[in-house]
Amino acid sequence: MKHEKDIPCAGTILAVEFIIERNSICVSLSNRTFIFFDASSNTSTPYKPGPTFLLPSTQNCLCYVPRKNILFSAGTDGTVFAWQIDKILHNDYSEASAEKGVKNSEKERVEYRNFTTAGTPWFIARFGFASCIVDLPNIEQIATGSYKNLIELWELRNDDQEEALELDHKKGAGISKNKKAGRAGGKAKAIGGSEPFDEVAKQPTKKLEGHKKAIREIAYSKQYKILVSVGFDFQVFVWNPYSFKEIIKLDGHESPLVGVNCPAGLECFITCDTKGMINVWDIRDYSCLQTLNVTNVIQVTSMRVVPKHRRLVIGSRVFKVFEYKKPFNPDTSDDNPILCALFSSIRFEFYIAGERSVNVWNAKNGKPTRCFKNCFESDITCMALDKEHRKLIVGSHVGEIKVFDLLSGVMINQLERHGGKGKNKGGADESAEISFIGYGDEDLTIITTAWDKTIKIHKDDRDEQKQKRPQENVLRAKSCCHKKDIISGDYSHNLGLIATGGRDYNVRIWEYEKMKFLIDIKAHEDEVTTVKFLNPLPLLLTADSKGVIFIWQLDEPYERGECLIKMENTHSMGVSVPVSAVDSFYDEEKEELLLLIGDEKGRVKPWDISIIPKERGLKPRDCSKDIKRNPHRPLALEEHTLDRGHGDGDALSDVGAERDKAEPAIDQGQIKQLFTWEKEAHSDVIRAIQYINATDVPLVFTAGIDKMACIWGLDGAPKGRLTQGYMMKANYFWDFPLHQHEQSNGAR
After folding, report:
1. What is the reported pTM?
2. In the chain, what are the domains?
């Protein structure tokens, strides 16, 4: 964007409108004047000032109607003027003014009444302060909004009517004025003596009432013939201009709205509020398709869509421009590598995070439903759902943690960040990437770990009355938990334990309630990339970047972990491949334990490890029902001192001498791989894997760096893949069987 020129004005600019046919810009100023600028590039003087009018009142909104070649303006005193652009911008205007001997400093200032159309001004509701004006082209009306909470519709005459009225006005102006002066009342006098010719014309054809507070802006969809209005009452109103009552009131904003637009060619409308939340609504069923949060703004004042250039412009103390309707790859699930993904067995939705946004897909039909755009200014690294699957907790590459409402996409809470000395503004810390987020079920707590070697337990609470700072929601925390970064973590609610894996090759177990250090596992000889509790059994799986996998039994009083299994994730030719994603499922009735492993080569391996609970006599354990528990125990931030005085783990000498030789209790040959998938599930690293047992037959959900998210049978048979271009495919394959589930709705 290139800066061209600064143009000083005699007053504050209240409204600007571009007259496309005449390539001119009309500017309304606070000193009750209009000034026109010639925007033609072929003139010797760019943006040459044209005529200036002294107006009877301040005109704070403008709307140009090209088919009528008329510029409408609405003022603070409730008047609506219609300006004849051809007369105002007549080519002989300047020459005519010069012939009359008008001084150069005053020749552009003319009598405004010479250029208004017959029958105007119109009058908005008594004492109405006009806030917006919009053209309704295919029903030949204009709509005005005011601070009197009203939308008023005004009829636009056809060309024959206008010519007849204009002719009558010229012939009998004096008679008409005298006859109608009494009926016009004080309204005509308030605008400097200009009397409307048509008494009926100054009456609106319809008034739409419904807003409880002032109206800020109105938009109109020519294709669907609906009005959308927003104001200070936090709701979006959708109207049928032929009816007196709104079609629907939409909730989705938590602050006053400042703008609404209906982009041409798109089946949606866009709303924006003062806090920078932008919602994209489907104009067909009024569902929310996408939520975008504008960052680093104090108060948004305006929003405008530029359809030709596919840009969304946001006005605040800073000027922000977003691109919309970005071309996408129809054959992938996301335009960016998928960093994490989740499946909700309650909502039957997939949540896929690519870069800074989260896409929500309907699991029943495999189609996208909405998108949470720009959750952070850095990449999303971790996600978790609350117990009821109503909230999505998201962590970023620089240590930020936010909580979003899954239905509306509204950010409802922001937790204390990792790194940056606990500050929530500025100071982005790339050494504080969130490596794990867990949820404490009925405890309503959120457990987070990060590269800053810290574990935090936050209270999932947002009390509007108390207006707590994020730091005050931290119940307890422990710093310096490893010598090096914590790069993996997990939380077991039924065991009351937190597991962390670090770049120092160690796995450590912590008590959830008291943040007490319990067990230090030093069996790995490389970075621990995965730790996973095999709930509800007291088992922990750990894996490192060399592809070595351990399964540990954890027994009270949790003084040590007993190694049950040691194996390597190998492919052909005995090459070890690091494990990148793990999930498990335990069937209590059959006493079967299933383990799913996804690796960095894109392969999936389902293992039957039921031999472990059977041979060891393990049963599900649940300590969360203990009445002596105090999950909201507050503890001040403590520094873990176990590593004090030790090396930083950057050299093998720091860890090599401390390695423990783990002797597995069960031979690897006793566990079996259920199925061998014929081909790779993904062409790159698998970042998420999840077992789905809510369907008629079990499924496996996977997502990876190759931008794909898919579902499979346990035997590796493809059941469907999420693709952005689903609408372009005649036979979109998606097999997500839910017949038994839907038939049991009544029983549930």
Report:
1. 0.65
2. 9-209 (2.120.10), 382-432+453-479 (no CATH), 482-674 (2.40.128.630)
